[in-house]
Every structure is written in structure tokens, then in C-alpha cells.
Amino acid sequence: MLIRKLPESLINQIAAGEVIERPAAAVKELAENAIDAGATQLDITLRDGGLSLISIRDNGIGMDTDDLRLAVERHATSKLPDGDLLHIASLGFRGEALASIGAVSRLKIASRPRGKDADGHEITVEGGLVHDVAPSSCPEGTLIEVRDLFYATPARLKFMKTPPTEARHARDALERLAMAYPDIGFSLEHNGKKVFSLPPRTGENAGLDRLSDIMGADFSENAMPVLLEKEDATLKGFAGLPTLNRSNAQTQYLFVNGRPVRDKLLTGAIRAAYADYLARDRHPVLCLFIDVPFELVDVNVHPAKSEVRFRDPRNISGLIVRGLRNALSEAQHRASTTVAGQALGYLAKSTPAPQSEQLWQGEYSQSSERYGKLKGMEGSSYHYPRPSATPNLAAAAAMPMAPAMRHTQNLPAAENDQNAREDYTEYPLGAACAQLHNTYIVAQTQGGIVIVDQHAAHERLVYERMKNELQKGAVKSQGLLLPEIVELDAGATERLLENAPAFSQLGLDIEAFGQGAIAVQATPALLGQVDCKKLLRDLADDLDELDQPLSLKESLEDVCSTMACHGSVRAGRVLKTEEMNALLREMEATPHSGQCNHGRPTYVELKLNDIEKLFGRR
After folding, report:
1. Percentage of the chain with pLDDT > 70?
2. What per-residue confidence (pLDDT) applies to 235?
3. Residue 595 placed within a domain
4. Which of 181, 371, 380, 418 is the most exposed place for a label (fewest CB within 10 A)?
5. Rounded distance, CA 602 to CA 458, Å?
6. In 200-282, where do the E strands start and end?
7. Whole-structure pTM value
8. CA–CA–CA angle 206, 207, 208 (5° rounding)
9. Distance CA 94, CA 62 (A)
10. Domain range spanning residue 275?
11. CA dist., res. 80 & res. 255, Å (int)
12. What are 502-534's pLDDT values in tens digits?
């Protein structure tokens, strides 16, 4: 086989295949060039997902004729003045984007230098063929048009998705850049329709305002500020409360020195930070910015510049974990406002009109008939006024009260006193008023009501107590008068006994008792009476899922969480009012009590205004 040198056109097409995977990649490269050029406004237009047209206009510094000729050549760049790849302070630096795009499309660049009396000029490239520079009547800045992307490599078109899908990828790339540069305005139009228009943001809250523009008001209302400096690295940004979570990690936005990245090291650190608060299949919503000296990070590890490599990855991972956990600790017992919004959404769903009509007609006509009989008015034309069809919550309110609701009428006189009740309502979680179905606590606050899941809330409280005791030394254990023998399969028994020393530090003392059996000598005192058989089986399942020898520090959330669940107030247990109020007060004083160990909310707060809207009072 003879070795030959590839022609320049084929080299450019190969480079284009690495750098320009899809229209979104071209949009990202061109937008980064505009940002590096000092633009304060980027206007992007797409047609057919960017396959037919990508147009980006900016008000940056512009280019003269010499710059235009060099811009479309491979490895020509203005981003490395010293030629030092260890100090990359710009988004672009390879000098491949324009040459690669021009090799597979019809490219036109029109530019006019900013602040000069020079005329504008343009240059075109078609399938790698460069035409000479020509005059252009363009304004200051640069306009780049990419038409018929991949027409020179039609095989690549077969791998493209539908235009709406390609447009979504382009939008995602632009939104990530907009998050990192809130002082720059962005607008996107697709097939003649405005997709978004993000005005420049300034001031102290510029970053959060821009995130609110993109991620929505739900995020800004439930975002915790994150700020931590460690050695030469700085972490800043915003992270959502644990109860604001998603089923995937698509809403996790990460930036290194202003560059959007996707990095397994960073996402792993995020998962570790939220491990105490979210189930394994749920993911937090956040936007984090990491700033490190340029020489401590290598951004030249991927043609698309979407991956980075840190000189000290352990330091960066620790920075993220500590920064997020500090923010979570500051959040105390907060739960996201979306929890209340979802609850109101469920309550506001009306029953179908015919059913509502029958419900109201049946209730009120029967009441009217009974009233007429009592007054000797049988056959009278008098009827109660029938309300209009309203949410079925109102209909339920007209029904006889269910016996499952426990009132506070049997309280001692001191607790029944109105002043005492008002004092309790001044607390964030209010005063306990009732227990529904022996599972949910209803409390009145000054601004509305709070509904608490007693099991989920107490599970978090027990978990936090166990962690505190573990930090002080070891969890106190309670010896059993007679060891409890638990029979398990051989695999579960082996896994539990291998980790017996770690369990001992958590207050659970176990030892072998013949083949396939374990003797439980002591249990954590915090748990009270527990079902040892069920507890050991759940712990064995946890160890099997971890698929590694238990490290107490690394797997504390799994073990403690399982134990806490077994020692919590169970659903179905009747609570006295003083017990309910004590639970509410402890929740207020305990960090992270707004969600259980699995990321589910422990309480829902409904504002009075929202409740009144349900009944048509507002």
C-alpha cells in the first residue's frame, strides 16, 4: 500500500467532521468568535434547523481585508498572541472553525472594522473554494452567513435529525453562552419565528436575572447562591433546592473560565454533594461557574472544546462538594415553591361539568327538600341558591367532615386559648390544627396553611440526628435483652457481616449465628423499637446495589437513611397535638428538613391568597 498525502480539500472536510458535527456546532463556534470580538449583541437566524441557513450578526470589532483573507484559512487565529497553549484566555483558539465550515457549505463573511472610516468588505467560500475579497455595504461589526451546510459532504446529511431537533440543539448551545455572558444580548429566530430575545443584564443580580430569563422563574425563586474559594479555584453560581429536581441531568449547566463544558468529574461531584437529599434517579437543577488559573486547566483535549482536564481534579471535586453542601446547609428547612404550585395544580383540576352539576344539584336539592319538610313547606318553590361549578375542592368542603380528621378540640384549656394558637402561627411552619388520615399534619400559619407528611419529616430528623452523633464519635446503641436472630440468604449474610465494623459505628451490633443467620445484639438508640429482620434485609439490598465494600464516609447516606426510615414515625400513627407541634418546631431547627432522604418534599405550604382563588374569593 502506497502512502500518499491527502489533498487540502479532503483535509478540510475531515477537520470539518471533527469540529462541525451538526448545525449547533457551527452556531456555537461562530457565536464564540463574536464574543471574543467584543460584541455586546448577537442576532442569530436559522432556517430548517440551520441546515439551509445560519446567520449571525454581531457588533464586535470587525475585520479589515487582510483579516478576512486570513480568517478562512486553517489554523489562522487572533486568539494566541504569545503562542502559549497553557494560557488560553479566549473561547476560540484553534483557528479551524471558519475554514471547516467553509469546506462543507457556502460561507459568506461581511465585516467592517469598528470605529474606523474604512468601508466594509466580504469574502465567500464555497465547498472549500475561496473567492477574493469584495466591497460590501455592511455596518460596523461582522455578519456571517452559512448556507446549505454539508452540501459538499452529502453523506453527513443522512445523520442529521429533523429541523426542529437541530434547532433545539442550537438553542441549547446559545443559551449556555448567554448564561456565561449576561452582559451580552442574544436573540434567536428560526424559520421566521422569534425563539427568544435576551436583553443585556447589568447590576448585582445580572447573573441570576439572566438565569431566570432562560431557566424560568421557578429556578430563580428556589435557587441558593453558591460561593466558595479554595486555593487557586473559585466556585460561584446558583443551585436549586433538592425538592426542585429533574429525572435527568440536562438542566445542570457547568462552566470553566466562562467556557460551557460537559465533564464527568464535575457531574460526579454534584451527585456526591446532593447524595443526602436526592434519590439516585433524580438530579438537581443548577448553574455553576468555576474559575481557575489558565495554566491549571487544559481546554485543548477535544476538537469541540466541550471537555477540559484539570491539573488537580481532586481539588476541583472537593470545591464543588463543599460549596454545594454549604449552600444546602444555609437553606435550612426550605422546600421549593414548585411543591406548592404542583399541589395547587392538582387541587384546581375541576371535575367534568356534568358531574359537577349533578354533585351540586344532588346536595342542594336534597337539603332543600329536608328543609321544606321541617317547616311544613313540602312542595314549596323555594330552593337554595345553587353555586356555579367550581373546583371539586369546594364541593368536598360541602360534604360531611371525614372522621379521619383529628381536631384539636380535646386540647387542654391553655392550648385551646386563641392567644396561644396565634403565638404558634408566628413560627414558619405554624400551629398544628389537625391530623388527616393519621398521616398528614395540617398547621395554620399567618399567611396560609402547611401540610406535613409526618413520616417523611421525621425520617429526615432522625437521619440528621444520626449524622450529628456520628460526627461526635459514634451513634449510641441500645442493647437487646435477648439477641434477635435473623435468617437471610448466604449472599446477604456475607455482605452484612463484612461490614459489621461500619454498622457498629452506626449503633448496630451484629455477629454471625451459624450458617445463613445473624444475631442482632444492639440497635441504634435513636430508632427505638425496630423490625430487625426488615432492617437487615433493606441494608443488605443497599450493599448489593452499591456493589462495593462499604466505606462509611462514602456510603453514609445509604446506611443512615435506611436506618432512619425504620426509626421514623410511621404513617398511620395517631399523634397528639403537642407531638405534632414538637415535630414542627424540630423541623424548623433542623437543616434540610424540607425534603426527606429521597428528595421528596416533607411539607407543602399553601398561601391564603392561593386558597381563596380555589374558592373563587379572588
Report:
1. 75
2. 95
3. yes
4. 418
5. 9
6. 223-230, 233-240, 245-246, 252-256, 259-261
7. 0.66
8. 95
9. 19
10. 216-330
11. 21
12. 888 878 899 999 888 999 999 888 777 778 888
Q: Tell whether 534 and 507 lie within a shared domain.
A: yes
d(CA 10, CA 4): 13
Sorting pLDDT into bands at 50, 70 and 90, what band is 123? very high
- pLDDT at position 48 is 96
Torsion angles phi and psi, residue 29, rounded to 5: -60, -45
Classified as helix, coil or strand, 225 is: strand
As a whole number of angstroms, the distance between CA 41 and CA 48 comes to 23
Buried b (16+ CB within 10 A) or exposed e, 61-72: bbbbbebbbebb
Q: Where are the alpha helices (DSSP H) in 240-336?
A: 264-273, 313-330
Residues 142-171 have pLDDT tens digits of 999 999 999 888 888 888 999 999 999 999
| In a shared domain, residues 132 and 264 | no
CB 56, CB 143: distance < 8 Å: yes
The 10 Å Cβ neighbour count of residue 227 is 12
What is the H or E stretch that residue 355 is in?
helix 353-374
Q: How far apart are CA 289 and CA 296, in angstroms?
A: 15
Please identify, among 133, 163, 198, the residue that sits at the C-terminal boundary of a domain: 198
Residue with cell 446477604: 492
Q: What is the mean pLDDT of residues 354-379?
A: 39
Whether 373 maps to a domain, the answer reads no
pLDDT digits (tens, 9 = 90+) for 449-496: 899 988 888 888 888 887 777 777 667 888 998 899 999 888 889 888
Instruction: Tell me how far apart the alpha carbons of residues 271 and 264 are, in angstroms, rounded to a whole number.
Output: 10
Strand partners, 470: none
Grid cell of 96 as nine digits: 479551524
Structural contact between residues 27 and 312, judged by C-beta atoms closer than 8 angstroms: no
Report CA torsion sign: 603, 605, 606, 608: positive
pLDDT at 384: 31
Q: What angle do CA 372, 377, 380 make, to 5 degrees?
A: 90
Give the range among 322-331, 395-404, 572-581 with minimum mean pLDDT.
395-404
Give every CB contact of residue 556 below 8 A, 6+ residues apart in sequence: 467, 470
- Is residue 37 in some structural domain? yes
Provide DSSP, 13-34.
HHHHHHH-SSHHHHHHHHHHHH
C-alpha cell recorded at residue 355 = 358531574
Q: Are 256 and 351 in contact (CB under 8 A)?
A: no
User: How many CA atoms lie within 13 Å of 261's alpha carbon, on the beta-carbon side?
Assistant: 26
Domain count, the chain: 3
Assess whether 23 and 142 both reside in one domain. yes
Q: Which of 263, 269, 294, 605 is nearest to 447 (CA)?
A: 605
Q: Which residue has the cell 457549505?
A: 105
Q: Does 253 fall in a domain? A: yes
